[in-house]
Amino acid sequence: MPAAGRGYTRRVTTRLGRYLLREAAGLYGLGVASLCLLLSIDLLSVLARFLVEQSATLAQVGRLVLFKLPWFLHLTLPLAVVFAILVAAGRLAKDAELKAAYAGGVPPGRLLVPLVLAGLGVSAVALVVNGWLEPWGEAAYQADIQAFLYVRPPAASQADAGFAVEGVGTFFASRLRADRDDPRRGDLTGVLVVLADGRTVTAPRGTWDAEARTWVLQQALETPAGADATDTTAIEELTLPFPLEATPEATLARPDQQTLTDLVRRIDELRAAGADVGAARFALHRRLADASSAAVFALAAGALALRVRGRGAGLALTIALLVGFWATWTLTGALFDQGVLGAIAAAWATPAAVGLAGLVLAVGTARR
Predict the structure, then answer these.
(1) Where are the alpha helices (DSSP H) in the chain?
(2) Could you tell me the residue ranges of all domains in the chain?
């Protein structure tokens, strides 16, 4: 093709790409609003009961909805990309605009570039929402709810808390509860400690003092290494070294109320404590993976969009992709909870599958 012809094709392709993005931009706002409304239906029914039972005002309920908005955006920001691209391309296909562009020499694969770039932009916004706005909103939401339900909010607690402290031993409590007034202290119930020298200590209750870096156990029973269960020594109060820098409050902080920065720090602290990092690691990678979904959705939806034959086909494909994503996203979370999948595999399985499908479709589109 002559240079002048190639220049003309590039200009047409650029204009068509911008035109497609403008079509998709308006639909994207509509998609975000519609999906947020769908996700909020269950919450609104709960808040309606809350409005009546707790005598909350409409302004207070409105605050609660506002605090939950980042959680709605967590999923709607990437999912609306599918809706916007497929419906916009369906409209162009219905009016034969795409067919005319292809007949004029515009390569379909080139139109994918602006769509993927737009998806990357949405992913950047989603990363900020998922990583920082969502935990802030969840913490504010829970604080407002607890202010209505409790004179004093309940202390954070965890069942089956275990720590492997190198050189000291393995510490286990059937229940760990943070002190409401002192974040450096925690109450222990059902304690079992296996020390590095082989001694075993059990106690019905105790206290974790993070400042002194000790576990203080009441009515403890100590069994020497190699002895049977009958050869025990009763100790009214036993102090064991627990040299961890983490505090009970930091250990028990909910992952959904922690920013990405906090989660990275918490994983390091839990790993140093020999505690399970699975939940924190899953929360971290889930947010990163969900934010990246906007870019992979733009790739997959764009490759499909350039093949649709009308608006009806675009809507049908949108519904199919959204249902498939939701089912896979929910399933992988359940598989992680059951211990079938690891934290990273469960978090990234859905966008990885969509991205792989998008690459296959994109290669086929580029060869047309």
Answers:
(1) 3-53, 58-94, 97-103, 112-128, 134-149, 248-252, 260-272, 278-305, 311-337, 343-366
(2) 3-150+280-366, 157-252
